[in-house]
Write a structure and sequence with these properties.
The protein is mostly helical. Helices cover 25% and strands 3% of the residues. It is built from 4 helices and 2 strands; from the N terminus they run ααββαα. The protein has a two-stranded antiparallel ribbon with strand order 1-2. β1 and β2 form a beta hairpin.
Length: 124
């Protein structure tokens, strides 16, 4: 019996699993490396919301229930987070310096600060 000699081509995989891929191979020139984030304005333009029916929820008309977490208490004078409030005037304050200022305010200024917060109490 005579053996036949068959010519075969050796086929190698293009990527070897044990070899680490170099950055220039993974990202050719001109291709971004990171994730590209879209701004809300870009999403709105791309989605073309004018053609959607008004009762279908979208980014524009989505409604959510009120938060379950309590709202932060803000200092009436400085705008910082206020862990304290003055029981005499009901104004919230952030630190001792602001407390001195709160105690020195005339009553009409106190009422104006409370009115800004919708917590005004009319004194008779």
């Amino acid at each position: 019996m005579e053996l036949e000699v068959v010519k075969a081509e050796l086929v190698l995989p293009t990527h070897l699993s044990f070899k680490q891929v170099q950055m220039y191979e993974k990202y050719p020139k001109g291709q971004s490396r990171g994730r590209h984030w879209k701004h809300l304005k870009q999403i709105l333009q791309a989605e073309n919301y004018q053609n959607f029916p008004p009762d279908e929820p979208t980014y524009v008309n989505i409604e959510s229930p009120p938060s379950l977490h309590p709202c932060k208490k803000i200092c009436d004078i400085t705008g910082y987070e206020a862990p304290y409030y003055d029981p005499r005037t009901n104004l919230r304050y952030a630190n001792a310096d602001v407390f001195k200022l709160v105690r020195s305010l005339p009553n009409e200024y106190v009422q104006r600060y409370l009115a800004l917060r919708n917590a005004a109490v009319v004194l008779k």
